[in-house]
Design goal:
This protein folds into 3 domains: 136 residues, Response regulator (Rossmann fold); 100 residues, PAS domain (Beta-Lactamase, 2-Layer Sandwich); 105 residues. The longest helix is centred in the C-terminal third of the chain and has 116 residues. It is elongated, with a radius of gyration of 42 Å. It is 62% helix and 15% strand. The chain contains 11 helices and 10 strands.
Amino acid sequence: MATQIQFNPSEFSVLKDSTLLYLEDDEIIRKETISIFESFFKKIYSAEDGKLGLEQYHLHKNEIDIILTDISMPKMNGIEFMSEIRKENNELPILIITAFNDVNQIIKAIRYKVADYIIKPMQINTTLKIFTRIFNDRLNKKLVKKQQKELSVYKKILDTENLVSETDLKGVITYANDIFCEVSGYTKEELIGQPHNIVRHPDVSPKIYEKLWEQLQSGNSWSGKLKNLKKNGEAYFVKATIFPIFDSDGNAEKYVATRFVITDEESERHKLKKYIMQQKGEQVKYEKGLQDKYEEAVHFAKMQKDQQVASILHELNEQIKILRIKNSDDKGRVLFLERKIKESLDKNDELQIAYQKRIEKLHKTAIVAVEQYKALKKKNSFMSEKIEKSQEGIVTLQAYIDEYRKKIENLEDVIATFEKEHGTLGSIKSQ
């Protein structure tokens, strides 16, 4: 009979949306246990033997989330029942209820991927904790799979919109996508196996790459603008983000770089800058020329105070006005161009910020997935160790039982020999 104790429902809240299939041939234990389990599970199906349990499974297999079965049952025992279930479903968690001396049955159950085992008499609180651990592990696995799917989607998006490459920890290219090959002019065969500086432009300061490697080797990502070199010698500009990918132990195993081309924007920016500088130079030149002419005219007027000089001076002033209007127009054009280049830079910065946020989300998702995978791996390792130690204990206990059986057999041999030589113990007593 199951042991009754006080329970904390919130501790086992993960079970509330789950369905249990429970197999137990003892009617009293089955009813008592179900009455307790009903407070924790959404639904419970039950059966008194393996054959009926298999029928229940086939009727409700789309609902059932976990199975708890006794080993010793009529018609079809727990091991035979597990064997049939595993033919259809190798992932559904199955727990067995067993006695200490069922060593061979436990070993068979392990072969059928038993999730855990409950020692008789069943402790309900312990059993609920085991259920909770199993469901938490399953939720973690689903979360990791979901995050892996998200990573796959992000990678697909990056692959179709950006230049993507991967390198080992020494910077040797191990992967390059089609866009990277198209922009750089190299084939995948020419890129893979080569150091990534195959596309490095000599104009870029080595200090930038020193800072880049310092960031990556400390486990952080790096973002910035780079000038690269095509196979044909042409330059192209990219906004790049490079980040490390970690293994299950948290160690960097490779680097991933993703970039988008900004060559057109950069070329336009340089043209605008050059034109603005030219306009500013012309502006200074005009102003200096006007000042010189004006000073010459004033000086000449002072020296020659007649009507002709006054006329020349008036005409010169009109020319100065015209030139000043032209200069004002040029200033307005320069301001317009400066505003245009600022809008272009702002737009480029907005694209970079949005892009950086997407990459940061990808990186954070990868880190969370790694951490959860490590925790899951640790739990599985703990569970495997627990099963192994329990199995060793059962084997040791079985050895003790075998030893005592042998001693009893030896004692029976001694008694038989004694009776053979001296008569039965009953006849000796009567004498």
